[in-house]
Specification:
The protein is built from eight helices and five strands, in the order H-H-H-H-H-E-H-E-H-E-H-E-E. By secondary structure, the chain is of the alpha+beta class. 18% of the residues are buried. The radius of gyration is 20 Å and the shape is elongated. A three-stranded antiparallel β-sheet has the order 3-5-4. It has a two-stranded parallel ribbon with strand order 1-2.
């Protein structure tokens, strides 16, 4: 994992890794972790490496998780930007964004803090090692329980109902 992603897993994560990789062995009909390692090394850029990465990564996320980060963004970055002339450039990278709650929270913070955000060149890049959760985040579809901690004003202002999910992000 360290070689392919930079993630270093300590001995304390042994049970977690065992459980997650055991599912991959069963899915592939393999009998041992050595066999699984052989599959990975035979095609280090193949689909199974993607499945390996997805199995090992942990996806903990929620809207406005660790709210002090969004307070900092509002007070130290966005408020000063609001006093600058139009056309200012701002790039925000949400690394490890999982199913997208963090980048959507950033977008909501921007909209709430800068009513005229459109006069600036603002872009948010959202990335994650797990391609499955990234795909879900890209859809912007969230079950009702995912937004239950948001205020009614945020829900009505930034989400709409969808036949495919209880809420659909629309920042």
């Amino acid at each position: 994992m360290r070689q392919h992603t930079g993630i270093s897993l300590s001995e304390a994560k042994r049970e977690l890794v065992y459980g997650r990789l055991s599912r991959r062995l069963r899915a592939l009909g393999l009998n041992s972790f050595r066999d699984y390692r052989d599959v990975l090394t035979a095609d280090p850029d193949g689909q199974e490496m993607v499945e390996f990465r997805n199995a090992i990564t942990t996806n903990l996320t929620s809207f406005f998780r660790e709210s002090h980060h969004f307070d900092y963004l509002r007070e130290q970055v966005l408020m000063p930007l609001g006093t600058r002339p139009p056309g200012q450039r701002l790039r925000i990278w949400s690394a490890g964004c999982s199913t997208g709650e963090e980048p959507y929270s950033i977008a909501m913070t921007i909209r709430e803090s800068l009513p005229e955000a459109g006069r600036h060149d603002i872009k948010i890049l959202a990335t994650d090692l797990d391609s499955d959760v990234l795909s879900r985040g890209r859809s912007g579809l969230y079950a009702q329980d995912r937004v239950k901690g948001l205020s009614p004003a945020r829900i009505s202002g930034f989400f709409r109902s969808s036949p495919r999910a209880a809420c659909c992000a629309s920042p």
